[in-house]
Amino acid sequence: MNFKSAAIGFFKSVKRRSPEMSTPEIDKKNNNTKFSFSLYGLVTSFLLGSVAGINWLIDPLWYGNGNILTGKNFAFNERITKTNLFLRTKDKVDYDCIILGSSRVTALRKSEFTNHNCFNYALKGAELPDFVDYANFINNQGIEPDIVYIGIDGLNFVEKERKEQQPIDVQSLQTKSPLEAYLSADVLLFSAMTLLGLSPDPGNFYDQNFEPVDFANPPTYDPEFYDPAELQRCDLSSVETFASLQEFFTNAKFVAYVPPRSAWSIVNDTYGRGLMDCYLLAFHELSQRFDVMYDFSIPSAVTKNPDNTFDGSHYSVTVNNRIAKILQRESDDTFGIRVDQYNFDDYRAIYRQQLQEFLAENDQLKRWDDRPEILIDLVQ
Question: Which pTM was predicted?
Answer without folding.
Answer: 0.87
